[in-house]
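The instructor's notes for this session suggest beginning with a concrete chain rather than abstract definitions. Hand out the sequence below and ask the class to guess, before any prediction is shown, which regions might be ordered.
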Amino acid sequence: MLDRKFFKSLSNAIRKDYVDHIFNKGKDVYGRSFKGYSKEYGIRKRANDFKRQESAFANKTSPVLTGDFRDDAKPSSTSGSASVKWAAYGSRVKQLEKMGRKVTDDRQPFPKKVIKMIDSRVDREIKKQFPKNKKVVIKIQK
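After discussion, reveal the predicted structure:
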């Protein structure tokens, strides 16, 4: 069985790649750039006109204003799983979805690049720990 240390390391890697894709590169879970904001909101964001606003994201359409939502995405692991969870701002996932800004989805919880990274790391760890010809099933879910 894969050990807890592996899943902790994997959850940290997932969070790092996920945050980079969604917030830093400004792409949704499907790899599309986030659409622009309403005219008024866009003007205020670019002007750095909001309280506690992170100025590094003033000219980006990423779902980052203060950074609270991004920073709330925490790596989580157990002895048999690795994930990213929101502790306080999980409700924003649904709000963003209603606005056409999918940061996760039931059909695809992570961007394809992150899923490929997970597959690669799990495959490598399985090859280390398990003998050949042993069947292992891995489920990626939200």
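Then share the key points. The mean pLDDT is 91. The beta strands are 73-77, 82-86.
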